Amino acid sequence: MAGKQKKFIQGNEACAEGALYAGCRFYAGYPITPSTEIMEIMAARLPRIGGAFIQMEDEIASVSAIVGAALGGMKSMTATSGPGFSLMQEGFGYACMTEVPCVVVNVMRSGPSTGYPTGPSQSDVMQAKWGTHGDHPAIVLSPSSVQEALYETIRAFNLSEIYRTPVTILYDEVIGHMREAVTIPAPGDIEVVERQKPNCPASEYKPYEVKNGKVAPLAAYGEGYRFHVTGLYHAADGFPTGNFKLIQEANERLISKVENNREHIWKNEEFYLDDAEIGVFAYGVCAKSAKFAVKELRKKGVKVGLLRPLTIWPFPDDAVLEMARKVKTIIVPEMNLGQIINEVSRASKGQCEVRGLFRVDTDPIHPKQIMSAIMGKPVDATVIPNEVMIERDMIDG
Amino acid sequence: MSTQAAPRTVPYKEKTPFDYSSYLRKGKLPHIWCPGCGHGIVLKSLLRAIDATGLNKDDIALVSGIGCSSRTPGYVDFNTLHTVHGRSLAYATGLKLAKPKLKVIVITGDGDALAIGGNHFIHACRRNMDMTIMVYNNYIYGMTSGQSSPTTPQGMISTTAKYGSIEPVFDTCDIAKAAGATLVGRGTAYHCQELEKTIYDAIMHKGTAVLDILDSCPTYYGRFNKVKGNSELMEIAEKDGTVSQAQAAKMTTEQLQGKLVRGILHRTERPEYCEEYEKLMAKAQGK
After folding, report:
1. A220 shares contact with chain B (CB less than 8 Å)
2. Is A229 touching B (CB cutoff 8 A)?
3. Residue range(s) defining the domain that contains residue A276
4. In chain A, where do the E strands start and end?
5. Quick check: A268 pLDDT over 70?
6. Is residue A96 domain-shared with residue A220, that is, in the same domain?
């Protein structure tokens, strides 16, 4: 394999590169804008390296197939957008319940239903947490640049293996289709977590037994461990149970394996927050605009900073509270009509004012709008693109 | 693959009783099926057929959806995957492509395969991946207490067809053949020895094999339709309602009205998906 490479690629290409780097060897999917490039790249690349690619009949089948493949021992992935993400919730919940590692990418487009397929949004951010029914764990990563789409995809696979749970990568159409210069790391440059296999005798293998606070290793089918997997509540041996105590424990454990490890899963970038009087909380493409806005206003002496979560779920409660204790106001720009702002309000525990800046016309929130919001000025509902000077500064991370 | 030549005759005809215990997870019994349910009979035919193939238990994966028949995998000592309603074939497809050496057997029901899973069913048949799909067809949703399914005959009573079903039915075998399955067969719990042979043929077939297995639900379908006891239900639907291919060959079209034909109804050869994928990989790698 080649060493480190520099490429000028789209976010969707970077995501596929990250998946291959992380050892993804199975992809099942269904075409949908604006995520399809990921599928097309995997269709071309996987057969060359001995991996499997299959186009399924719909998104329900796609997510089901990647769970099946994961039980065959492969690292597996699918990618989609809003309508497909809705269909995938069933299989996603099954993966949560059965603790099968896999990665689901949602390149967010605008609106409920078909909406506006080629326009970006961030309106699935709560669905990514609560989309499937029942109490379930959620690890959701949100890259803000093309390079991060690659890195966060690798991290998604690693977290998925460590915690034996499906991981969602959530970014928007702009990140998906924007081109940036990206470094593709050489093998070994970034840690790749391999799946733990059991080494006990087959008769003693319990696929859901917790030891030292860690999930059990996941055997692959066909390798001598003839175990049972079911979406019913199950005991440590994997077989269905109706025992009240075991059901309570099983559900609590699903949640706690993520919640108890939040500090390992969290990842934030803090930008000019030390002396900030106003904070911005932004993720995805909005964080790009927010960073630019913060830089511009800092030049004018405005004490503003940015908190940018790369892990959205579990929600970065501690970082938000810390920021809330420092600043007078937190501005939350989002490409929806107010979703993650409610989490920011909850986590800031009344320590400061929280204000939203929402835009759903399928154009990204412009730095100018964020600057107006920070300065307490009226925010134009839309900024017409030809009035806008995109400066070089916006292109970096 | 540890497939060996069949070590004995199919169906099982030796004098010593067949030992089911090595295939059962005895600690997980008793099963959930009602008294009189045919699923246990079909399970026995399945285990005898598997035994005859000589396959190693480690090389067999049993995948199911949701419903009464889909609880089968929990009771048998293979690689077992009890998935969600209607999607068993999609899970099985991913598993088989990830690990082609596995012999994948899918256990599903008339509602699971033909209603909620109908789309996955036709596409699984189209792909012709090497797997055996056993549709336990008892004309009703048993797990949810007796609602109509796509195979509930017209005029029959269910909790959602209180005045008799007006819906035309699906013929599992016709759909499977039209969608591209390369082996299509039918058996019944009543003809359990013949069923064993049919299942054996399906498992040994290279490609997608679909079996329509007529089975009975005395608890709901029988009770709602005023049929006393399971034996009577089996006689009406499975014994009197079906004929073997040999019998069918001697019957006129008129005589065949209302009868379903048992046995292997369709068998053809078409490239198997995983083998084609192997070739695709070689091509992509410039070999």
Report:
1. yes
2. yes
3. 269-395
4. 5-10, 24-29, 52-55, 75-80, 102-110, 116-120, 139-141, 166-172, 179-184, 228-230, 268-271, 278-281, 304-309, 311-313, 329-334, 353-358
5. yes
6. yes
